[in-house]
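User: Round two. Same drill as before: sequence, then structure, for each protein.

Assistant: Same drill it is. First protein:
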Amino acid sequence: MAFMAAGTLLSLAILPPSKVVRDDGTRCSNIKHSNVSTEVVETLKLFLNWKLLLIVPAAWSGNFLYTYQFNNVNGVLFNLRTRGLNNVFYWGAEIFGSVGIGYIMDFSFQSRRMRGFVGIGVVALFGTVIWSGGLANQLKYSRGEKLQTLDFKDSGGDFAGPFILYFSFGLLDSMFQSMVYWVIGALADDSEILSRYAGFYKGVQGAGAAVAWQVDSHNVSFMSQLIVNWGLTTISYPLLVILVFLAVKDDIKAVEGTTKSTMEAGPTSAGP
């Protein structure tokens, strides 16, 4: 909360675009803001946009899997203090996953499309291995079964396997999310268009999370939830490959529109 509050206050110090001057003395062009009616119409159009329809399974699965991982793996297998420790490593793994896949998708090849294909392939490989581990783990217990919860100090070797699995879930989550955001960012060079794409993605993602919690509250079996989660992510990979193949270009020209803010080349600095 403290960091969020500090960030909010710092945002008040940002200069308006009209007062930003580049090192060569030129000023940034003023941003032409949209209006409510335009945004409503453009948002509705997103539901007919074939590019975003290809992203829907990935968006839906993005937070759908949290219910299974948090409630039915960490929440069922471990005691209270170990769950807290596990979450430190889960979110810590997100750092490594995002940095790793970020490098692949930003720097591994000169061709942007090739980076997209390779990145999706890497995430698909990791996803298959990790969810296979999840299946092996899930075969050992089921909903309603009374389990002896694991403790990081007292459970010895029994703790290691489920812990590594949960850590890997965090690793995969950041890789998957970063991959999808990269694909979305490669679809257009207009920040206004991309903001709508990102909003669509987050909206579908939130809806998926809400449905997942409701599914779990109706006591759907753990195995069924695992299969749905694995299936959704698996379906996402070929759809994203198709999207990269059809919509992502290797040149530096705008794929869809040109930016209306600060896309012109050159470093910027604050002017009077």
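Second protein:
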Amino acid sequence: MSEYLELTKAVLEEHRTVLLAVKEEETEKLLEAIAAAKCIQVFGMGRMKCAVRAFVMRLMHMGLDAHVVYDTTCPNLGPGDLLIVNAACTTIGYTVMGFGKKLGAKVVAITANPNSKAAAMCHFTVSLRARVAKMFRRAGIEPLDLAGKKIRVRGWLDNYNGPMIVATHPEQIEILD
């Protein structure tokens, strides 16, 4: 089998695994919110903005009033509207979510961490279980076994429900003892 086919199968399997792990009630809640919304606005940054654009285009193809946040054609947000935020973002995403709530829109976070700051700021979440834990295990690191060990982490600090270090790749963790 060619390398292209192997990589394609790996990507499709990863997507299948992530999508099948989404709780059906979360999906139903999101679909109901989309159907009820006057206007749907979706926010993402970086690579996720490409996925956001594709998602918004599909919503528009279905006849829904959908926009990408910060595009020049994006209307004002208000009551009856839906703001969907890719919560793999930082301060800017939190700011967008805060404005969405303040303006009366229903705010939904798509997140890998249902206990994150972004999740606490929205009306509900749709959790996409990231492959992060699997990556750590493949690298020989069991995240739960790190408790009490001396480690060096190259990540960033977050201060939600107390300080925590965010590490998303095994290369960021060095076990010292």
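The chain has two domains: 3-127, 132-175.

User: Perfect.
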